[in-house]
Amino acid sequence: MLKIGQKAPEFSLPNQDDTVISLKDFKGQKLLIWFFPKASTSGCTKEGIGFNELIKNFNKQNISILGVSKDSVKAQKNFCTKNEFKFDILSDKELSVLKKYKAWGLKKMYGKEYEGILRISYLIDENGMIEQAYSKVKTATHASDVLESIK
Fold it and tell me: For the whole model, what pTM was predicted?
């Protein structure tokens, strides 16, 4: 994971509408960036819906939200449309941002090891520094857990 106080790595990725979104677009506001394994799966959907339901609470604190996975722009569009997300979901097919943010790594399932997307999130402050890092994410409560941590 990236360390608290570290400069957040720059990025530019296409969103669900194929519009390029960059870290610099959020200068002067906070950004919660959540990395998730696969669009339209049950856990990722629960996590995204949690952020969507609490988006006004994040906005009141000047926090924007971005989701990132390696799914295609089309898959992200379907994910956003189906769930009526009020925030952007970015496509990182090349894994460049996932790797910069230490969200790509070794995972284990049923005793087998493989590389994949780690379910982690970062709160980036107004100056582009890592303010919080969340590694033990519970999909159903992640959004409220983040809000609780920044009170």
Answer: 0.93
